[in-house]
Amino acid sequence: MNYTKIDFNVLMNENGINVIKTIRSNNLLIISSRRYSEILNDLALNAKNIFNFKIVDYNYKSEPSIDIIKDLISKIDFVPDTIIAVGGGSIIDSAKAIKALFNENFPLSIGKRKNIVSNTDFLNAELIVIPSVVGSGAEVSSSSVILDSKKIYLASPNLVPNKIIYDLNLYKTLDHDQKIFGLGDSIVHLIESTFSKLNNGIIRLQLNNLLLNSYNNLKKIKDDSILIEDLIFSSFWGGITQDKFLVGPAHCIAHNLSKSNIKTKHSECVSFLLPEIYMDLYSENENKKQIDNIFKPIGIDFEKFINLFELTISNKSSIKSILSTSINDISNDPAGKFFKLNTKNIYEKYI
Ligand SMILES: [Fe+2]
């Protein structure tokens, strides 16, 4: 039996970022992109109980690498007691990596199971995240991915953010594709969790509601009536299910794919892969039973759900050409074998 611990301070508000003015901190580190620097500087200066702060801009175009994390850490001239991350997945992942690696000696020694063998001497700092994109679930997860010659996973309950602030104004710059694929990634997180061995009764109960909500969100995004609150709701719960119950075949294959072709965008890739992979799984009796157990009680036909998903989300993907050029690398995908999928057949449908 697995317990599910869900323990967050969460806030959703038009001007949630103003909460910074109420923070108490002796040494506050803020990681953000340049676009928010001015407002963050004003908020920290106007806070009564912030005594020392530093804003470090994340001005790199790529996901965090070990060199980027080392560079960020070199700019910090105090020991932070609070870290605030404002921005997208790379910024949130960097803030977690700084918390994990601040006291670590470089070069890092990497464990056999991809995680860093760290000295576990994580920085004792409160982590506050203010996300500006939806879908990845980085704001609720206990992990951070950094790139070296391969992807390195940092995962620890110490990396779960202590506070999440959803500031509705920050999402105004999201474009249509970011919303679509953000929702796609969230839905894939929910569906993939159904296959997790860690899945227990309490989350199964919640999954029914969440999948029903996802179905409605798909319809809303199709007729352009989706609200940012709807996307945040999906991102939050999708992130929690992914974090607690790990990922399934679409994520495993997408991660392997991004190793062979770094141009693949995670949210597009999983959105595109979901329909073919899950219809392949659904053709097998045991899987069908498992999936029907979750969809039937909410009165939704799984094939209808997947059709709507494909029509709304994955059809728009530009990833088709990337997949077709990577076919030789991935037709023997180990994740595909693990999940007993005929990946060669699946990929050939994309060409
Ligand atoms: Fe994902």
Structural class: alpha/beta
Number of helices: 14
N-C termini distance = 43 Å
Q: What is the CATH architecture assignment of the largest domain?
A: Up-down Bundle
Q: Quick one: CATH class of the largest domain?
A: Mainly Alpha
General description of the model:
The chain is α/β, with parallel strands linked by helices and 351 residues long. The longest helix is centred in the middle third of the chain and has 22 residues, at 201-222. Helix 8 runs antiparallel to helix 10. The strands form two sheets. A six-stranded parallel β-sheet has the order 1-8-5-4-2-3, with helices on both faces. Strands 6-7 form a two-stranded antiparallel sheet. Helices cover 46% and strands 12% of the residues. The model has no long low-confidence stretch (mean pLDDT 86). It folds into two domains: 10-171, Rossmann fold (3-Layer(aba) Sandwich); 176-350, Dehydroquinate synthase-like - alpha domain (Dehydroquinate synthase-like, alpha domain, Up-down Bundle), CATH 1.20.1090. Fe (ii) ion is lined by residues 185, 189, 251, 266, 270.
